[in-house]
Structure formats: C-alpha cells, structure tokens
Amino acid sequence: MRIALLGAPGSGKGTQIARLVKKYKVPQLHLSEVLRVIAATESPLGHQVKEVMEGGHLLSDELMLLVYAERLKMTDTRDGFILNGFPRNLNQAEVLDNLLEAHEVPLDAVLLLELDDDTLLERVGGRRTCRDCGAVFNIFTDPPRMDDQCDACGGSLHRRADDRESAIDNRLRVYNAHAEPIANYYQQQGKLHRVEADGDSDTVFKRICQRLQRALALARSLKKTQPKPAAKKPPAKAEAPAKAASPKAAPKKAVPKKAAPKKAAPKKAAPKKAAPKKAAPKKAAPKKAAPKKAAP
Length: 296
Description:
Strand order of the largest sheet: 2-3-1-4-8
Shape: globular
Strand content: 5-15%
Number of helices: 8
Number of strands: 8
Helix content: 25-40%
Mean pLDDT: 80
Radius of gyration: 46 Å
Low-confidence stretches: 238-250
Structural class: alpha/beta
Order of helices and strands: EHEHHHEHEHEEEHEH
C-alpha cells in the first residue's frame, strides 16, 4: 500500500495517519521525520541536510526529493508507506511521480481530507503536541486522558508557535494556493479520493478506511489491465568482445559473408574409342612365269 494523505493544517492528518500505520503496518514518511533519519546518517546528503536544518533554512524541492529518494531505499518501506502532507505543491508532485516511477513504487491512491476554514481554525487552536514523542492531540476533537500529559509516553504537551492564530492564517493561505492544483493533478490520474474530515476521529477514520479500500481495489484492477512490458531478449554471446563504438559513429551494417564457391565435381573421363584395326596387307599374287623361247 503506497498512499499520500493530504489536508490543510488542522484537518487531522497526524491523528489519522497514526491509526493507518497501526492498522496497515507500514511507515509514515513525514518530512520532519525523514529529515531526522537522513541527517543522522554519515552520508554526504546527511551532512548537507544537517547543515540546512541547523541553519534554519528551507529545503529546496530538489534537495527534498533527494531526501525522500534516500528514505525509500530503507527496508521498512518495502511493503508500502504513507506520505504525510507531501507533496506540498505541483512541482513537488510532478518530481515525486518521476522519483517513484524510477523506483517502481508509484502511488496507489491520494486521499484528501477536506474541512472548512472556520473549523480548521478552531482545530488548530486546540492542538497540543508532546514535547518528547511528538504525538498530537486536540482539546476539542481528540483530547488526552489527562490535561497537558501525553497518553503515549507521559510527556508534557504544549502548543506550537505555528499553531497560534497569526501563524494559522498565513499557513492556510499558503495551503489553499497550492491545494487545488495538486488535487487536479491527481484527479487527472484517477488517484484522488476526497474524504470529509468533519466529525470525531473515529468517524473520520472509518470514512478513510472505506475510501481507501475502494481506492486500492481500483488500483489493483488498473494494474491488471495494463499491458505487460515485452520481455527483453538476452543479448547474443559474441565470440570476441566488441569495441565500444564512438557515440557519434553510425552503426556499421554487417557485411553478408560470401558463400564459398562450390568445387566442381571431377568430370568422368569419356570412354576411349577403340582404334580401328588395320587391315592385314594383301599378299601379292605369284607372278606367272613367262614362257621360255626355244633356242634356234
């Protein structure tokens, strides 16, 4: 299962993703969590991310995608993942698609939590975050069992600076400016599924699971109908290693080998004609003796 869960600040993404992670046993890839994991490595990218974070600077879209690419290589994402609030703009969505396609792990579905601005302002104002484990609660919709104490680890809860009213207004303006282009982008792919986020967390979670089941079934059916890529034939073994051709050189056409001339079959000797027999010489007939004259 590979999905992205999007929504405005205060829509309940953090609460719902925590429940999805527990149900489907896949990790969530939240930007802050991804940055911490990569910054803790000794890789060149880890050092670069650490410098950006310590300097209080914002990550460029290119660096952000490199961070996600590195995170996707880790073994815990093999069975799927949930992107938490990412991508945040259209450029990130397009580059993310290219990244996931390159890793052969495209998104199955994108869920968008929708809530009106007035309710969002109330929710963000009531949000409390654990200082130790980062768990999020809401004093109106998802209160902790004990005031100002985390249910998960017992740590103290506090209100973040960006959850105050002046910061909330600015965050909502930024979100609304980018939300619709992203929604249209995934709508054209048939991957967008809108979820009404009004109500208690149990009700919203039930809606998400129902919508997610339909989305995953649709994704599976689309995969079955897609033509499979033709299998590549293994290259023929060459008798001798071929020299690398110059990139500009046109490929040489193989000259057809001339067939060796066939040897002419030896001619059979014509039978010798028998020489004509010479006629035996005729014997001369005996001469008749002339009559002798009588002497006078």
